[in-house]
What we know:
Layout lengths: L1 E2 L2 E7 L4 E3 L5 H18 L11 E2 L3 E4 L3 E6 L5 E7 L3 E3 L2 E3 L2 E7 L3 E4 L15 E4 L3 E5 L6 E4 L1 E2 L16 E4 L15 E2 L8 H13 L3 E5 H8 L8 H8 L3 E4 L3 E4 L1 H13 L5 H6 L10 E10 L7 E11 L11 E4 L5 E5 L7 E5 L5 E5 L8 E6 L5 E6 L4 E5 L4 E6 L6 E6 L5 E6 L3 E6 L5 E6 L4 E6 L5 E6 L3 E5 L5 E6 L7 E6 L5 E6 L3 E6 L5 E4 L5 E8 L5 E8 L2 E8 L5 E6 L6 E4 L5 E5 L4 E5 L5 E5 L5 E6 L5 E6 L4 E5 H7 L1
Parallel strand pairs: 1-17
Antiparallel strand pairs: 1-2, 2-6, 3-5, 4-13, 5-12, 6-11, 7-10, 8-9, 12-15, 13-18, 14-16, 19-20, 21-22, 21-50, 22-53, 23-24, 24-25, 25-26, 27-28, 28-29, 29-30, 31-32, 32-33, 33-34, 35-36, 36-37, 37-38, 39-40, 40-41, 41-42, 43-44, 44-45, 45-46, 47-48, 48-49, 49-50, 51-52, 52-53
Helix pairs in contact: 2-4
Keywords: Repeat, WD repeat
Pfam families: WD40
Amino acid sequence: MCKEVQGALLDLKSEAYAESLYENPRIMAYMARQHDSWYTFARTDHLVEPEDIVFVSGWVKTPANWATAAFRDTSKTREVSLKGQIWQFVGLKLSASTTKEYSGPPMHRQGSKYPKRAGRNSTRDQCVFVKRIKIKKRLGIVRVLIAGAGHDKLPPGNSDPETVAGVVAVEELLDTEDLGNGGALFSEGQGKAIDPLDALLDYILEVSGADCAVARDEDIEAMLGGDYPPVDFSTYLRKSQPPVVVEDSQYGSISIPNLMYRGWVELQHRRITSLDLQKWPYIREEGSGDLVFGQVQLPSTEKPGDHKMSKSAYLEFADSTAGDTHMPCFTLSDDGKLLAASWRTVGSDILVWRTSDGLTLQHLRDPEYTDGVTAVAFSPDGRRLVTGSADETAVIWDIRSGKPIMRLRGHTYSLTDVAFSPDGVRIVTGSADYVVKFWDAATGLPLCTFSLDSPVRKLVFSSDGSRLAVMLEDKIALYDVGAPIVQLGAIHHYNVTDYRSVAFSPTGDRIFICAQGLVGRLYNTDSCKELLRLEEPNRKIAVGTFSPDGSSVASIASENRRFMLIVQDASKGTIRFKERIWAGGTAVAFSPDGTLVAAAGEMNVVVWNMKSGELVADLREMQRVSDIRFLPDGRRILFVGRTDRMGIWNVADTLRIR
Length: 658
C-alpha cells in the first residue's frame, strides 16, 4: 500500500487463495520474541528504527509468479506498473491496471519455485503475507512493513537474520477515498491520519502498564464487528474500554475471549437508543432474538486429530404465537443486516429483525390476510419486502414505515414462492395454480404470465439477474429474463422426479440440480444439456451448491448409509474434499470468499476450512436443521430449523477461541 512516494506493492499475477491466522496468541508471542532479530536483519541495508517493524499475520497462497516492491524517498525516480484481477485483502480491493512514478531506488523480491514435495500441490506453494500485526514499545511507534514469503509456515524461531526473508518499506495509512479511481493501491492525499492500530497500541500501553504492546487488524474487526473505525478511534477506545491482557509479562494485547464475553453480556442487556428510534420507530425488545449457548466441538490446538468441547453463543429467533410445528419462511437482506420470517400459520405476522443484536425492527400485520404467509423476499436495497400468502395474493411492504405499498392479485391458488430480481426492477411470483407471473416492482402492474404443468416449488435468480429457474415437481423451467422474457427450455428426465434444490453458478451459465435425495447433476443453462453427474451407484446426492468462484461444487451425499460432505471439481467431478457428517445431511453453503464450507446435519452445523480440509467447529444439540446460509460478512451463519427456531451463529468466535 502506497502513500505518495513511500510504501510497498504486492503484485499477484495469477490466482491466489486468501487465508488468515485468527487471534492466535502464539503468533503474538512469536513476534515479541523475534522483533529484535528482525530489526537486526532490517538495519543491515536500511535506515530503520526498532519501532519501524510490522509483522503481517494473514497470507495468500499463490504460485511463484508474485512480486513485491518497496520504495523509499531518495533522489531517483522509478516507474512501477501494477496489473491484475480483482483481489481482496484486509477489506481493500486491488484492481485494474495502474502506472505511477515513485522516487527512490526500489527493492524487489520475486517468488521462488520450490522442489515438488509429496502430497503438496506445487502450483500454490508460496505464502505471501498481506495482513498486519503491529508492535510498539514505550519509546517507539510502528511505521514500516515487512513483506515476507516462503512455504505456509512462519519463519524459524531463531535470531539468525539469514533465515528471515523479506523486504522492508515505509508504511502509511491508505486513503480509502482513492479506492474507486482505478488506482486502488495508491493514495495521494496530503493529510495525515492516525492509523487505528497505532491508536490501539497507545491504548494498550496506557491501560496495561506493559513495556510492549501488540495489536492486529483482527482486533479492530472483533471490536467493531467489521465496521470501519470511527474517525477519533482513540476516544472510542477510551469510552468503550476493550479488555487488555498481559501475556507472560511480555506484551499487552486485546483479550479476545473477554471481548467476546463482553459482547455476549451486551446482547443479554441490549438497549434501544434514541438513534435506533429515529431510524426504526417501531423497534422493540418484544419478540427479539435470545442469546443461547450451545455445545461446540473444536479441534485441539495441542494434539492434531484430537477434539475438545467448548461453548459458543448464538442468537435464536422464533415467533411465540406460531406454535412449535411450523417451519418458517424467511429471507435475508443482501447486506445481511436484516432478517425477516413468518411461520406460515393462519393470521401469522411477518417479523423483521436486526441481525447484529437481534432486536425486532418491525412486526408487519395485514388485516386482509386471511391465510398464512407462505413466502418472503427482500428487495436488493433492503427497503421493501414482498410476501406471498395462501390467500392467492402478494403484498409489497415499506419496511421502515411497516405499511403495505401495493397488493398483487392474479393467481387462483396459494402462492408458493416470491422473489425480487437482483436489480430490483421486477418481482416474480409462483403459485400452486401452475403459474409464474412477472410484475413491475415500481407500479405493481403484471408484465407477463407463464403457465406450467405442475405447481411451482421454488424461484431462483442467477446472481447476475439474467436467468430464472422455476423448480417444479418433475422439471426445472429456465427463463431468460431480459426484454422480452423468454423461456429457454426445461430440464427433465423421464426417470427423475421430486426436484428438491437448484443453484446457479456465479456466472449463471451452469445450474446444479438435486432430486429425490438421489440425483445431483450440472447442466448448461442455455442448452439445458447435462454437463456432469455427481451421483454414483453407491452415492446418493441430497443437496448441493456452487463455490463462489464456480470452480467447485459441494454436496451432501450418502455413501453406504453414511452422510458425507463432498467438494468436487465443477468441470470433471474430481473429489477435492470429503468429510463425514455426524447425523443426516440437509444443507450446504460456502462462505462468500470461499474459505469456509458449512454443512447442516439433522442436529448440528459443521464448518470446515475449505483449503486445508480441517474442522473449524461443530455446533451441536440443534433442533432438526433444514437450511443454512452464510451472511455476507463471511463470519456468521444463519441456520433454520424444521420446527419453530432459527439462529445466527458467529463462527469467527470459535476461530478466535482457538
